[in-house]
Amino acid sequence: MKHFLKLEGMTPSVATAILQRSTYFKQNRKSHPKLLDGQTWALLFSKPSTRTRVSFEVAIRELGGNVMFLGMNDLQLGRGEPIADTARVFSRYSHGTVIRTYAQSDLEEFARLAGHPVINALTDAEHPCQILADIFTYEEKRGSIAGKKMAFIGDASCNVPRSIAFAAEIFGFDLVCSAPTTYACDVKSPRVKNVVDPQAAAQGADILYTDVWISMGKESETQLRLRDLQGYQINRKLLDVAKPDAVVMHCLPAYRGKEISEEVFEERADDIFDQAENRLHTQKAIIEWCLQAEPK
After folding, report:
1. Residues with catalytic roles
2. In the chain, what are the domain boundaries?
3. Is the pLDDT of residue 174 over 70?
């Protein structure tokens, strides 16, 4: 029994194996084994979700399992029951838990006590399922990501660029983040560079990536962030200095006219929605990996 909690520290062999199985699950969506037959998995979400919730619910059902979705207000957690007690209760009822919450420490405490696989569906620290799906998407379209350059434009201090930074170490690509200095990526790695100028970051990039300027939990900073991040937008000017076959990525939801222009979003919508679809296939592979026995 294994957990999937973060990309930090993951070995290339494990990450590569998950992506290989993602290909299998995508190619065999109607005929793959029902790995979760007779199982019930819980989705425990403290934050709103569209793609993560739907893709995990569909993945669990297509793997033959039953799924329960539970928001914070559905549980005694919302009234102060400790996460440790909730985890021990879940371990008596369900066969796995997918958690979307704020603190990485809560996720890790739950996993320590749950007694069944726990998957990180997003915390403030990391968004590992998203980033593995992103790597899968790029390699599906362009081949190996090793040696390539990804430019992340916008708030580089949040969970998505942090997980991309860990993925850069795993897969051997370079990440250049462009943001005001107070929004720089905090991962220290020779593969990660912070620059203020978005044009410099996008120069020669194989991938242009962005995310919302106002992450969940940061709503009180809306006006400050709208002011600070003006100009950190994927638009035609950045696309023109990236490589001609650069892939544009956005983990969605997208706020056109802010972190990405309407023109570029619609022009590259097929790639962006392929990226969203691939959450389903990659998460099936992650579930399968969690079910596999630890090597002795």
Report:
1. 100, 127, 130, 211, 251, 279
2. 12-126+279-291, 130-276
3. yes
Q: Torsions phi, psi of 153, nearest 5?
A: -115, 120
Cα angle 141, 196, 269 (rounded to 5 degrees) comes to 30
CA-nearest of 148, 207, 210, 149 to 179 is 210
| pLDDT tens track for 237-271 | 999 999 999 999 999 999 999 999 999 999 999 99
Count of residues in the chain? 296
Same fold, 12-126+279-291 and 130-276: yes
CA distances from 17 to 23, 52, 137, 161 (A): 10, 21, 15, 22
CATH number given to 130-276: 3.40.50.1370
Whole-angstrom CA distances from 185 to 31, 193, 212 are: 41, 8, 15
Q: Which fold has domain 12-126+279-291?
A: Rossmann fold (3.40.50)
C-alpha span between 50 and 256 (Å, rounded): 18
